[in-house]
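Model it.
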Amino acid sequence: MTVKHFTENNMKHVWAGIRMMSGYFNDTSKNSRLPSTSTIYANELNVFYNRFDCHDFSGENKELHEILSNRF
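Modeled.
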């Protein structure tokens, strides 16, 4: 749901989600492990993060590198 909160500009919930995913807690008395979550939630996270791996930008990167190398 962090994406939904991000698109709705709800930063309080975005940071709460990031803290939960990273296992960071302000209160040292809390257990530092992630809460138990369902496989559905784990799959939602996988879909979110794997969307960055579906495109191959190596051609664009090479072209941009050549352009920038010629400028400097």
